[in-house]
Amino acid sequence: MEAQERIPAVSIVVPAYRVTEYIAETLDSIYRQTFSDYEVIVVNDGCPDTAALEQVLARYEGRFVYRKKPNGGLSSARNAGLEMASAPLIALLDSDDVWEPRFLEETVGVLNRDASITAVFTGAFYFGNPEVEGKPLSDPNDNPEPFTFERVADDTCNPSYCCVMRTEAVRRAGGYDDSLRSCEDFDLHLRMLKGGAKIARHPGLLFRYRRRAGSLSASAISMRNWAIRVADKMASRNDLSNSERDAVLRGRRKFEAELALAEGREALAKGDIAEARRHFALRQRLAPYPKMAAVLWALKICPAGVRAFVRWRGL
Fold first, then answer.
1. From CA 117, how far away is CA 164, in angstroms rounded?
2. How far apart (Å, rounded) are the C-alpha atoms in residues 227 and 220?
3. Lowest mean per-residue pLDDT among 104-108, 134-138, 260-264
4. Exposed, middle or buried by CB within 10 Å (0-12, 13-18, 19+), for 115?
5. What is the pLDDT of residue 111?
6. Cβ–Cβ < 8 Å for 120, 111
7. CA separation for the pair 280, 253 (Å, rounded)
8. pLDDT in the model for residue 140
9. pLDDT mean over 275-282
10. Which is nearest to 38 in space by CA: 59, 16, 9?
11. What is the C-alpha separation between 272 and 77, in angstroms, rounded?
């Protein structure tokens, strides 16, 4: 009689696309974990520099499962890893980010101690860009429990993507939405919560999120557009209670206001004063605050001064 293949405790999915210069650091952070009962699944999502990527991966030969697929985006790559996962727990780690050595030990410990918890995430901090190096991505004090559908939908609290989840719960929720190129975690968390999941937070800063150098405004604009799309998707459901629908719409309005602010900043940086005023005026209508009123007034009087102030102090 053949011995049954051992099932690991955690399946770690690492999508790879244009990350050849970073992925070794990511994999090293996995192999330095104090918890070692895991399998690693690397998904090559149609990487254009596959030859160079595979040259880096050759250093770790035999230590991970490898899948190549046509490019479909992050959600598609995560779903491909989810299909291959054999463990009862699944962890997602983007291939330019890094775990602290006790990340798995701490998060798996939470799930093992409380069977009612479906997913657990940790605090995080930025690295890779001198402008934000070492700053918290999320402060536990600003992200209080409980993580209910309504509180996540209206952005009162926001679970990090870097979490460990019960594999069956993710599959039961339908996995990631392949049509989303961003905010796919926001969408999945909402669907899981609507299905009865319980999400918990570990207070430690156990995850490092790489902020690459470049335009932060472009990233902010894209993220808010995708968040609005997720909100619209949720609002279209016919199984929401009145309070749940109200929470989704509150969240959408907040994302719309943040989008207007980001687009105004970008227009101002380009010197398009009229466009900046239009976006800032929309921001003020959606979520009024005194500083924005002052900026709108100053843009009429001294637009060059406002540009200099925003470059110096931000907005």
1. 10
2. 10
3. 134-138
4. exposed
5. 98
6. yes
7. 15
8. 56
9. 93
10. 9
11. 38
* Each residue's pLDDT tens digit, 285-302: 999 988 888 888 888 887
> Helical H runs in the chain?
23-31, 50-57, 74-84, 103-113, 149-153, 167-172, 184-194, 216-235, 242-269, 273-286, 290-301, 303-313
How many angstroms separate the CA atoms of 8 and 108, rounded?
A: 12
The residue whose two tokens read 């690397």 is 42
Task: Please give the Cα distance from 93 to 63 (Å, whole number).
Answer: 16
Tokens of 100: 């602290």
Residue 144 burial class via C-beta count within 10 angstroms: exposed 0-12, middle 13-18, buried 19 and up: exposed
Q: How far is residue 128 from each of residues 53, 83, 144, 208, 226, measured CA to CA in Å? A: 20, 31, 27, 9, 24
Tokens at 78, concatenated: 């995560």
The answer to whether residues 230 and 186 touch, using CB atoms and an 8 Å cutoff, is yes
Q: Which residues contact 148 (CB under 8 A, 6 or more apart)?
A: 193
Q: What is the three-class DSSP state of 282?
A: helix
Question: Minimal CA–CA distance to 147: which of 89, 213, 106, 194?
Answer: 194
The residues near 144 (Cβ < 8 Å, ≥ 6 apart) are 157
Reported confidence tier of residue 186, pLDDT bands at 50, 70, 90? very high
Q: Count the residues in the chain.
A: 315
Strand partners, 138: 124
